[in-house]
Give the backbone structure.
Amino acid sequence: MLITRTDIAKRVGVSVATVSYVLNGRPGVSQKTARRVEMAARELEYRPKLGLRGLRETKGLTIAFAFNFPSRSVTHDISYHELFFHVSFAAHMQDCTLIAHPSLSGTRPVKEILSELKARGVDGVLLGSDLTDEDLETLSETDIPTFLVARRHTFNHVGCMLGDDKAGCTRVTRLLLGLGHRDIVFVGLNNRETSQWRLDGFLAAMNDADIEVPPERIISCPYEMTDGEAIGQRLATQGQLPTAIVTSSDVIAMGVISGLRKHGVEVPEQVSITGFGNWNVTEFLAKPLTTVDTMVEQQGMVAMSQLIRMINDPAAKGHEVLVPTRVIQRDTCIPPRKD
């Protein structure tokens, strides 16, 4: 029996239009609903109606998703788990084979990774990696279609996908400003490019509001919950407590909240806080977290479709794709107290 989008809609209890939005990688559907739709499509073994041209261009392709980070970092970063889920669904929809290629021994030269994957006969690579100058030189010379995740570099056979992180952080900062906050701290500047883009968005919103941000109100923090917790404790015990905190990730936000509460500072009654990423867990916290949704389900569809385009058209040059972000307002942001 041919499975249709109507069957998926009935299984999930949503409209056919909602199913179409998810399967086409379009924004406007919550992450929770999108995941339910994707799971139902897999369980029902749904396949889109492709013409002969579409089948010829995608069926049988092998795509590698290479995670070139220390294994501990990938294990703790739910965003990559979420992205892999949605990429694997996109591969399923295109009748492609997807293989995971983690760097279990830690970050390695990209040249080694691409050489290994070329030997395995992959047709294209999705690559999540920090990049050295040597890595960039390798990418500029590679003939393997490659699509970078959250890294802003393009070459002849290399494209990239970015979330519109600056705009997302600008909007979430404006949310706090609109609630009446003026003393706002940014937590989470680190060696990730994305943290700098998010800081730029924060500073843009503060500048638009004619609010000067002292250097001590921009706090560096590695991408770890324990580091966020230490900063939360420090903010609770040293100096003037801000009325609001913008963080560069959900994991840092959860750590900061833990640190504040260990010293009796309640969120949001005393301090409002925002995250970035919209991890699934954030809506199930005791106080669901206000955050920026990076539209990871759309990222998965975009990454796969763009990589397949590059594989099927050797003359196609890599280019940058910007995926929109949106603010999800929940329970951790309220107007500041008037003491």
